[in-house]
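User: Hi! Is it possible to get a structure for several chains at once, not just one? Here's what I have:
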Amino acid sequence: MTLRHLLRDDDLTPAEQATVLDRAAVLKAQPFIERSLEGPRTVAILFDKPTLRTQVSFVGAVTGLGGYPMVVDGRLAGIGVRESVADVARILGPQSAAVVWRTFAQADLEEMARYAGVPVVNALTDDFHPCQVLADLLTVREAIGDLAGRTLAYVGDGANNMAHSYLLGCATAGMHVRVGTPSSHPPAADIVTAAERRAGETGGSVLVTDDPVAAVQGADVVVTDTWVSMGQEGEAEQRKGEGSPFEKYRVDDALMAQAAGQAVFLHCLPAYRGHEVTEDVIDGPRSLVWQEAENRLHVQKALLAWLLEQVGEGLR
Ligand code: NVA
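Assistant: Yes, the chains can be modeled jointly so their relative placement is included. Here is the combined structure:
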């Protein structure tokens, strides 16, 4: 039995990712067949950044598994401010079955995982948002079937958490992942390298380009994300105002027309209509954003059940 975490998308092997997605599909059809948290056991769910989908879906997932979701406002707890991350981890771990944390620095999340002694799940950091990509992959499976060999094109801010997670998560799924982003906002080089390595094992591929049309051409899935991520509010004007570097990466009908005929559109939300995506696209027939948002619940439930299974009761 092993203590496992989901800190970044490639923490799951291709086979493990497929197992979690299979399990999510089963739990979507039969929501209450897994009772891994019966007791109820507590799962600590911590937020240092705003949330809607993540809070609702993790509370639903923990409750659905028979557990108690303890939501903690990170500002009140002062994690890493009032006391160190390591000390918080050593408080939470013995009283929780798992820790779910949305925060800024990936290094802090890693420190939590080092000291908590229970599975730690990344509920979004500046670098990654792996639970969102699991939900996206489930949505793509539901819409177009097997993931391997399919192409997902992300256009927009290539340096943000979603771009990084698509690179790693889609490469793990054996997909061809393309990132269309201005050369001023490339994904981190080490993450591109990790995605290429993973794609080499799964038959997928990785392309980073500053040409949005080249990114989207023939793609099965087109995705984007806000141009101003949480924590970047101070740069809002330069990121989305006049002269925005992302202007030509907006997903509109003309860009969608470059994708495959049956291509679907995804967005992790919140969306800013008229900026990264037009109303016609996000509210149009190819958009699966509401199904995608609901799928957060199912994949997170499957993920928690799987992580708890890896730990086994002996370690608790
Ligand atoms: N890149 C966005 C994702 C929101 C779910 C952010 O970090 O704010």
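The mean pLDDT is 97. The longest strand covers residues 42-47.

User: Great, thank you!
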